[in-house]
Every structure is written in structure tokens, then in C-alpha cells.
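user: can you give me the structure for this one chain? C-alpha cells are fine.
assistant: on it. calling the predictor now.
[tool input]
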Amino acid sequence: MLRVFKWLFRGLLGVIALTVLVAWGAYYFATRSLPDYNETAQVVGLQAPLEIVRDNANVPHFFGQSDEDVFFGLGYAHATDRLWQMMLLRRTVQGRLSEVFGTETLPTDMLLRRLDLYNLAVASVRVQSEETQKALAAYSAGVNARIARINEGSFGRGAPEFFLFSPKLSPWQPADSLAILKLMALDLSRHLSTEVLTARASLLLSRQRLEELLPPAQGPGVAALPEFASLFPGMPRYAADTSLNLPSFVPGGPRELAGASNAWAASAKRAASDNTLLANDPHLGFTAPSIWYLARLELQTGGVIGGTIPGVPMVLLGRSNDLGWGLTSSYADDQDAFLEELNPDNPSEYRTPDGFKAFETRQSIIEVKDAPAVTITLRWTDNGPVLPSSHENIGTLLKDGFVASLSWTALSAQDTSLSAGLNLMKAGNISDAIRAMDRGYIAPLQNLMLADREDIALVLIGALPRRTAEHQTQGRMPSPGWIASNRWQGRLPASTNPRFVRPEGGILGNTNNKMVDKPFPNHVSFHYGDTERIQRWSRLMQARGVHTRESFIEAQLDTVSNTARTLLPLIGADLWFADEAAPEGTRARQRKRALDLLANWNGEMNEHLPEPLLYQAWMRALSKRLIQDELGPLHTEFTHTDPVFVERVFRDIDGASIWCDVIQSAPVETCTDIASLALDDALQSITDRYGGAFEALRWGDAHQAMHDHPVLGKVPVLGLLVNIRQSTSGGDNTLNRGKTAGEGPLPYANVHGAGYRGVYDFADPDSSVFVTSTGQSGHPFSRYYDNLGALWRRGEYIPMSLDPELARAAAVGVTELSPAE
């Protein structure tokens, strides 16, 4: 027995030793790719010596003798810190994910191949300005110089992920950068999903009920929609399969998680310092690392500092010494879906206003890891590419003999948006900035907030499609592609885009809300991303005669839910004092405790309070109760509470309270009945997950920011290393927006918000501040992987200075590059 014990003990020690050895080996190889920021190297592609100074937050400052060398340095730094992220973005837009990840990503590859974004980017290189082409070439040379250094110096393949997946890196090309911009446009354009969902819901609801559930933005100019079924006779009165089954890395996602943002500015007369102010925080899905990378470029026209996207040689949002700019999603209607009728005698043709016409076609081969290659036929119509029937569930609207196509402003082979962006960086004032955008910016359609030394402006930038007044669905639902009046007639001139320059009131702002009232077809959109945050913002702006950098920061971090303040008195009007005393442990007692907490709550979505969780769970359960009997399985695609819909129902506007009656039941339920039942549902779900001690609940425990690694984050054990979790305040409708997942095992998780925050003060530009939600490095073992995240969570910032000496003070490293002989 002793001998057996000894051998077991030795075996255990061997297993432990082997585990330690394997772990040490994995750590050793993973850390080989940690960069040395005090590097000195000779590199190919550089014209003169270049210095990269990384300040104490690891924000690189580039000092070169030409703009091309500065862009070379940006490419070198992006590849140093975010090489894996860049390669993943490039593979995504090229439709080549399956070469690495296998069949899981095949649907994504098929979609991106059909949209043909990469080939459009290749074609767009030649239409860029000469200056932009030089910048693209220099940036690509910088990326490739870093890849060459990695290969020559055995720097751990450049990132730990390359030890698990293919380490093969093809050289970076100028088209790769343009393609990533188009991928961002895809992520921000969600009108297709809204069109399809509207059409599917219209098959189940009357016209009035449809307008209540998916209300167009308030204001004049909205005409009644035709019934979708009337456009396509024989369409079944039900919505088929509603399971999206989204693969990993799919751009976009649910329409409720479309890009959003906040931006506001104050002119000198509304600023305490008699100089302009600008604040901006764009909202995107959270990832680890963040999509944003902070950088300062010292160009020949002066310094520029702000947020870049790895893979793109541009400061997308930030400031120079004389101009600040920020972006918000405009929600402009830049997409239309069409249903195309096939020739019953020749399915390689589709109907047009002039008869049947052959599709433009091309074969495309998708290589798949550990599986046979897949060959697909890409097809294009006059309206645009033919979509996979699975995309946005558009196949549920297709009868036999039909396919769906997409018109979208980003599908341009002459997209000069990057050239416009580089000109924006060099603009010295608002007029120059607007002129740069008008001359070349195409997509994605954005609201551009501007502030120079004297004044402020807000401009919608990008190409709006020109539609005819006779368009059958006004672009709100898919329409017959063979009807001439439904087809686009080119683009509207940029000069007609909404713009506000030097406002009398001295304050401008946008929270993705509707800005202008124009009748179709000169409208901007029927659907916008916000009706609630703008109300809270307006109150905060008007509460002060003048503003400061600190008041702008305060507004940016505000977590009061104007929606909660509005809806709770409505839905709880008959419930606050309805329950009599009840024994502990009963449902009535639970309901009373929850209502007592909510009655004394001011709507602050603070992470340490229980009330935000009670409120959010109640709204979620209420929304489900209101729509599930009318929509059936389709109700699962409405994952977030629409405050306008709920308010309309509980105010019984035009009989909207009919939504409260359950069709399948004999009694006629009132809205009070449904509110009470929904509260019980919410409290039961909270008790099941978090326990029944409501006073001890913390919103932050449920509302954790989910900065997940898009690949390794799902792997057991590794996920604990690469995913970043943070308890956060805010909610779906607060200025400090923390959009909840709305579905899945963690419905209240914070998955979409301000990955970048910046506040620019032109009284003292170097006192401007910014921050991102994670860190500069994409390497999980780097101390800069999540160093900024702790500041971001607490509502803190780092200096946004163009002072070279301040950058050098306590710098974490200085990289000196010189041209190779």
C-alpha cells in the first residue's frame, strides 16, 4: 500500500510539474509579443528619422519630418499594439474568417462576399486625393515594417492569438484601411433590419397597431404606409422563423444595438471662459480591447490628437489646436431593401421596369478550416447586391421566385470619405471643415459636431439617397424592385444636408434624436436612435447660463433616467397604494416592498442602488406582456422597452390601451392588470437570479460592462484572462448610456456604450481631456490592456495635450525609427 501511495504521490507531482511547465511555456511565448517601447530600429519605408513618444498613459505622440512619416509611425504603432485586432477586422471585411475559424463564421463570410465591400474599397483607392494615397501608402508601410520586425526578431508572432490561430500575415494594403471604414459603415447602418422587422410585423398587425409599435419619429411629413401584403399578393399573414442565429464577428447585430452617441457644444457666449467647448462620446458595442486607440499626430499643419481606429490612418474624433470635432450616428435612412422577382422561365434573370434582365454574377470560393471549400455565386441587380435569405431574416418575406437586394450609399466604388477625413484633420476653422466634408464624404452618414476658436456648428455629413415622392413604402419596408418609382435616383447634393452654424442660443447637441422636420422624400429618416436622452440633455444645458469643461463632463457622466421618471408614475398610478398589509413571503408583500422602493426613487441609475434593477426588470416584463400575444414568436425580436410605445399605451392615445388586453383570454384586462402581472414577473425573475432581499440588490451587479475578447472571450479559463468586467451605472436611456443586452442569460449586462469620451476646451486647449473604456494595448498580459478602463468606469479622464514636453514627462517609452540603408 505504501508503494502504491508513493507512486500516486510521484504521479501527482509529475502532473503538477507538467502543468506548471506548460503554463510557464504558454506564458513565455505569449509575453514574447509584449513590445519594447524603448525600441531603436532601422525600417524600410521611412523617409527620415521618426520619434514615437508614449506618454504615461501609453498614448503615442508621433514626431517626424513629413506627414507621410507620421502616418508611417501610426501604422507602426497600431501594428505594435493592436495587430490581432487589425487582422481580424481585415479578415471580416474580406469574408475570410472561415479560413481561420471554420464553419462557425461561414454565414458572415458569405454576407461580406455578397456585399463586396473589399473590392469596392480596392476600387476606391484610385479616386482618393494624391495626398491621401501617399498617407495610405505610408501607413501601410508602417504596418508592414512592424510585421517585418516581428518576423525578424521572433517577437512572439506579434500577438498571443497568433499561437492559437493562423500566424500567416499578408502585407497590409491601402485598400485594407478603406475597407475597415466600410465595415464601420455596416456596423452603423441598421435601416435594413428596421425595414424587414416593420414588414414582418405588418403581416400580423393592423396599420394603426403597427404605427404604435414602431412609431415614426414625431413631427410632420409622415404619410400612411400601404399594407406590405398588398404589395406582394399571396404573402402569408404570419412571420416565419425568427431565430437569427448570429455567428461570431457578424457586423451590426440587433437593431436596438445600433451605433449611438452624444455630442454637444457651446459657443463663446455660453461658456464661462468666453471660448468654445465641445463634448463627444460615441457609443459602440464593447470589446476588449476597445475599438478606439488614442494617438497624437504632429502634422505639418499642426498637431492633431484624439481617437483612431486601428487599421485607419486618421483621427476620427478629436481636436487640433484650433478645431474640435465629434461624431454621432445620424440614423439617416441610407439603406433600402428590394424584393426582386425572378423570371419563371430563366431564374438567372430578374424583373426590371423594362422587362427581365440578367443578373451580374461572379463565382467566389470561401476556404474553410477543416472543411471543404464553399463556392457561392455572387449576384447583383440594378438596385444592388442580392442578400442571403438568412440576413436579418429577410427570407421570411420571400415567396418562391423572389430574392432580396440592397441599395446602400456605402456600396460605392468611388468613396472618397477618407480623403475628406484627412482634410478635416487639417482644417483650421468650421468653414474649412464643412467644405472638406461636402466635397468628398460619402459614408457612413454621421452628425459632425464642430467647434473652432470662435463658434460652433452641427452638420449631417454623407450621401443621402434621392427617392421619388411616389416610392411605395417610402423606404420604411422592402418594396418591389421592378417599380421605377421605388428605385433610387442618385444622391441628394451635400449642400441640402441639415446644418446648424452659429446658433443664436449658443448651444448645439445631438443624442441621435430627430433634428429636422422635412417631408418625404427630402426627410432624413423615419426612425432615430433617441427620444429620451435629448430631454435630459436639454434640461441640463438650460439649467446654466454658461458652461464649463466641468459642467460638460458632468452632463457626459449623468445617469438620471428621464424615462423612468416619466413611465413609473404612469404604469404604477393605480398600484402604489393598492396592496393592503400582507404576510411576509407572500407575493403581495414582495410587490409592496418593490413599489415602496420605486416610489421614493429619483430615477438615478446608480450602480449601488436596487431601484434601477427593479425598474429595468419591470419594464422588460411589461413590454413582453404587452406584445407577445399580438406578435407571437416575433415578439422575441423586440428586446428593449420602447418608451414612446409604453407611454402611448398607458395614456391610451387613440385607443392604444387595447394592447393591454390579452387576446387569447376571455376577460378584458386593463393596463393596471398588466402592470401588476408584469411586476410579479419581474420580481420572480429577480428572486430566482439574485435573491429576494430587494433592498440589498445592486444595479451594478447586473449591469456589468462586458468588454469581451471577440475570439478568446468564449473559451473557458482564457475568458477569465482576456475579458474585462466592470460594475457600471447608467442604462438604456441615460446620457451616460449603458445599453443592456435585453436578452440571453444576462439581459441587464452593459454591452453598448461610450467606448471613448472627450471634452475639448478652447479657452485652454491643452486642458482638454479624453479616455477610452479599456486600454491602448490589445495584449492581455500588458499593463496597458485595461489601465484606462478603471478611469473610465469612475468617470475620470487623462490629459489631451499637444505639449511635446508634457508628453515626454514620465513617458513609458520612446521609439526611435530611422530609414534602413
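assistant: here you go. Confidence is low (pLDDT under 50) at residues 13-29, 220-225, 239-248. The longest strand covers residues 371-380.
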